[in-house]
Design a protein that fits this description.
By secondary structure, the protein is of the alpha/beta class. It has two domains: 63-164 and 304-349, 3-Layer(aba) Sandwich (Rossmann fold), CATH 3.40.50.2300; 167-301, Response regulator (Rossmann fold), CATH 3.40.50.2300. The protein has ten helices and 14 strands. Strand 8 (249-254), helix 8 (257-268) and strand 9 form a beta-alpha-beta unit. Bound molecules: alpha-L-rhamnopyranose. The site of alpha-L-rhamnopyranose (RAM) has 14 residues, from helix 8. Alpha-L-rhamnopyranose binds at residues 69, 73, 75, 125, 150-151, 194, 198, 200, 230, 256-258, 281.
C-alpha cells in the first residue's frame, strides 16, 4: 500500500471514530429529554433496523392510545385498564378510544384520527387483521409504535403482538373442555363465536377443528359455527337458534366472553339445561353463577388485565428504544417480570386457567 493510501485509510478510520462519538453523544442527549413525549421515538425494527438499547430507561411522559375491539365489553375494559395502569406506572398516559361495535372496519376512522394526535404508541385489539393494516402501517411510518394485544393485525402492520396464551394452547383447552362437558365425550357441539372476522377467535376455532379430526376427539361432531358479533343480544338469540336448529346438541362452545355469558344466561332457564352444556372462554365474574348452577361446568380464561398491562409495557419499551420488536429481545414488564419477544414479534402472557365450581371463588375479575 502506498503512503498516500495508508494515510487516507488512517483518515477514514479517524473520521469513523469521531462520527461514532458524535452519534453516541446524541444518544445520551436524547435519553436526558425523557419527559418530552414528543421527542423523536427511539428506532424500531421497522424504521431502519437501529439496535435495541436493552439497558436503556423507560422514557417518562409517553402518550399512548389504547383501542379495544369495542367499548362496553367487560373483558376489553379489564384489558385496557391494564394498559392504562402500565403507562401511569411509567409516568406516561394511555387514553382509551374505541368503536361501539366490533365490526371489521369500525376501528379504521378512529385510528386515522388517533394518528393525527401523534401519540408515542397505539395499542390495539384488532377487529379484523386486514382492515386495520393500511392505517397501522401509516402510523408506523409516522414514528408511532404499534402493538396489538388480544386479537392480532396482519403481522407486517404491527411491531409486537401480545398473545394471551399460545393459539395452540387455547384451541387445545377448548377441545378438552368440549369433550369434558359432553357425557362420554360423544355428541354434537356448536361454536358460538364473536365476529366472523375476529383474528383471535378464528385462530382458536381453527385449532379446535384440527383437534376434532384426531382420534382422541372422534366422538365429537362440530355441527355449526355461529356468530354473535360480541353483542349480548345477538349472542343470546344465536344460542337460542342453535338449540332449536340442533335438537341433539350437547354443548355450546363459545370462545368469547360475551358469547359464553349470553349462551349461559339463555340455557340456565331453558328446559335443555342439564342436557346441553356451555363452555368456552369467559370472565369468572360473569360466569360464577352459571358454574355454580351447573349450566357451565368448566370454562377458561387468562387475566385480561395482565394482557393489557404487558401490552402497555411492550409499547413503552418500543417507544423508549429498549426493544425494537426483534425475536430474542427482552425487557422488564413491571409486576410481570422479564419478558421475551418470540418469533414473529409475539409475546405470550401464559397458559389459560380453567375454572370450575372448585376454584371459581378464588378469582375476582
Ligand atoms: C371477548 C373478545 C376478546 C376475547 C375474549 C375471550 O371478550 O372477543 O377478544 O379475547 O372474548
Amino acid at each position: 500500500m502506498s503512503l498516500f493510501h495508508r494515510s487516507r485509510a488512517l483518515w477514514v478510520a479517524v473520521l469513523a471514530i469521531v462520527l461514532a462519538m458524535v452519534v453516541a453523544a446524541c444518544g445520551d442527549t436524547k435519553d436526558d429529554t425523557e419527559s418530552n413525549a414528543s421527542s423523536t421515538p427511539a428506532a424500531s425494527s421497522t424504521d431502519g433496523g437501529a439496535a435495541a438499547n436493552a439497558d436503556g430507561e423507560y422514557r417518562r411522559g409517553l402518550k399512548a392510545i389504547v383501542m379495544p375491539k369495542q367499548l362496553g365489553n367487560p373483558y376489553e375494559e379489564l384489558e385496557d385498564s391494564g394498559t392504562v395502569e402500565a403507562f401511569s406506572e411509567l409516568g406516561g398516559e394511555a387514553t382509551i378510544e374505541g368503536p361501539t361495535d366490533a365490526g371489521a372496519s369500525s376501528q379504521v376512522p378512529l385510528l386515522q384520527s388517533a394518528i393525527q394526535k401523534q401519540p408515542d404508541a397505539i395499542i390495539l385489539a384488532a377487529n379484523d387483521p386486514n382492515a386495520v393494516a393500511p392505517v397501522l402501517k401509516r402510523a408506523i411510518a409516522g414514528d408511532i409504535r404499534v402493538v396489538t394485544q388480544d386479537s392480532d393485525a396482519a403481522p407486517d402492520a404491527r411491531q409486537i403482538f401480545i398473545n394471551q396464551a399460545t393459539t395452540e394452547g387455547i384451541g387445545e383447552v377448548l377441545a378438552r373442555m368440549s369433550k369434558a362437558v359432553v357425557p362420554g365425550g360423544r355428541g354434537e357441539i356448536a361454536v358460538l363465536s364473536a365476529t366472523a372476522n375476529a383474528t383471535n377467535q378464528n385462530a382458536w376455532i381453527r385449532v379446535l377443528q384440527e383437534r376434532l379430526k384426531t382420534p382422541e376427539y372422534s366422538g365429537l361432531r362440530l355441527v355449526k359455527v355461529a356468530y354473535g358479533d360480541d353483542d349480548d343480544q345477538k349472542s343470546f338469540q344465536e344460542a337460542q337458534g342453535l338449540l332449536s336448529a340442533y335438537p341433539n346438541l350437547r354443548a355450546i362452545v363459545a370462545p368469547t366472553t360475551v358469547g359464553i355469558a349470553a349462551a349461559a344466561r339463555y340455557l340456565s332457564t331453558s328446559p335443555k339445561k342439564g342436557r346441553v352444556a356451555v363452555t368456552g372462554l369467559g370472565t369468572p365474574n360473569q360466569m360464577r353463577k352459571f358454574v355454580k348452577d351447573g349450566t357451565s361446568p368448566v370454562f377458561a380464561l387468562w387475566n385480561p388485565k395482565d394482557v393489557g398491562y404487558l401490552g402497555g409495557y411492550a409499547a413503552a419499551a418500543l417507544a423508549s428504544g429498549i426493544i425494537t420488536g426483534a425475536e430474542g429481545e427482552r425487557f422488564e414488564a413491571g409486576r410481570l417480570g422479564e419478558r421475551e419477544i418470540l418469533a414473529n414479534g409475539e409475546i405470550v402472557l401464559g397458559p389459560p386457567t380453567e375454572f370450575t365450581r372448585d376454584n371459581i371463588d378464588d378469582f375476582r375479575f
